[in-house]
């Protein structure tokens, strides 16, 4: 049993996630164009979607497919969270919890909005004339959209926080703002945010693939035996403190057995 370099599950996960941005971008753009086309034909979108259950069912199915693709990537990153040492592992766990809550709220919101979500819910409400009968529903959709976008944005930042520079963090914060405000811009800023997230995730994927960002070499903690990066000065599992060369020496001994 010697030092091992794990195959990067993070690389695989990032690939699935940046592909998810493409799929989600296309679906949101299609919904936006459809809703605008229907409203130009003076149709009440909320009544239309409510009377045609298959429309709502089809939209929910498409979102479920896209989310499964997304969570396939998240699961891969979660399984490989120790590849890039602390605090990346704790960031990924936080991101996963945020994404679970986000997904639950997203589908509640999607059902309330009868197949429309985010900015397209605005277009649907406009087509119904903002009548008092739909006002509570519209406010609920609005609030859930804002909360959902905040949760998603924070999760996406946490996943790649370890890999980016301070300048990239500032850009990422701007992308986060665009995403949150997409609720008020009929998804236009959201579409821009998804494109920018796609670029950043794809660039990090390529850097890991090309070896510019390398996974940590890991070895067992001398106190609890959990695998941790050899450059660690303490164990994130048991809290043991040690010289950061200790794991290298232990691993060297193990490799000779």
Would you give an account of this structure?
With 257 residues, the chain is mainly alpha-helical. The longest helix has 32 residues, at 9-40. Strands 1-2 form a two-stranded antiparallel sheet. Helices cover 68% and strands 2% of the residues. The N and C termini lie close together (8 Å). The chain has helices at residues 9-40, 45-51, 53-79, 88-112, 119-127, 135-160, 166-180, 188-209, 246-256; strands at residues 218-220, 227-229. It is elongated, with a radius of gyration of 22 Å. Helix 3 (53-79) packs antiparallel against helix 4 (88-112) and helix 7 (166-180) runs antiparallel to helix 8 (188-209).
Entry summary:
The chain has helices spanning 9-40, 45-51, 53-79, 88-112, 119-127, 135-160, 166-180, 188-209, 246-256; strands at residues 218-220, 227-229. The chain is mostly helical.
SSE blueprint and pairings:
Blueprint: H1 9-40, H2 45-51, H3 53-79, H4 88-112, H5 119-127, H6 135-160, H7 166-180, H8 188-209, E1 218-220, E2 227-229, H9 246-256
Antiparallel strand pairs: 1-2
Helix pairs in contact: 1-3, 1-5, 1-8, 3-4, 4-6, 6-7, 7-8
Task: Give the helices and strands as they follow along the chain.
Answer: HHHHHHHHEEH
* Tally of helical segments: 9
When the domains are counted, the total is 2
Spans of at least 5 consecutive residues with low confidence = 1-7
- Residue share in helix: 55-70%
How does the major sheet shape up? 2 strands, antiparallel
Class per helix and strand makeup? mainly alpha
- Strand line-up across the major sheet: 1-2
If you average the pLDDT, what whole number results? Answer: 79
Overall 3D shape: elongated
């Amino acid at each position: 049993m010697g030092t091992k370099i794990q195959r990067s599950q993070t690389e695989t996960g990032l690939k699935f996630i940046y592909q998810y941005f493409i799929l989600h971008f296309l679906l949101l753009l299609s919904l936006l164009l459809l809703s605008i086309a229907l409203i130009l034909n003076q149709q009440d979108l909320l009544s239309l979607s409510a009377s045609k259950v298959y429309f709502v069912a089809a939209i929910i199915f498409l979102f479920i497919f896209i989310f499964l693709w997304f969570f396939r990537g998240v699961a891969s990153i979660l399984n490989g969270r120790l590849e890039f040492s602390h605090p990346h592992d704790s960031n990924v766990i936080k991101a996963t919890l945020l994404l679970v809550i986000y997904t639950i709220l997203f589908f509640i919101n999607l059902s309330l909005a009868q197949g429309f979500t985010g900015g397209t819910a605005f277009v649907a409400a406009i087509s119904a004339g903002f009548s008092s009968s739909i006002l509570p529903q519209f406010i609920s959709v609005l609030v859930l959209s804002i909360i959902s976008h905040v949760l998603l944005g924070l999760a996406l930042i946490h996943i790649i926080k370890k890999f980016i520079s301070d300048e990239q963090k500032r850009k990422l914060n701007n992308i986060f703002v665009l995403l949150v405000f997409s609720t008020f811009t009929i998804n236009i800023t959201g579409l821009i945010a998804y494109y920018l997230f796609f670029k950043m995730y794809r660039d990090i994927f390529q850097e890991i693939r090309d070896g510019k960002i390398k996974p940590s070499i890991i070895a067992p903690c001398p106190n609890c035996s959990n695998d941790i990066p050899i450059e660690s000065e303490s164990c994130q599992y048991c809290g043991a403190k040690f010289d950061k060369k200790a794991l290298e020496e232990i691993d060297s001994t193990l490799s000779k057995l």
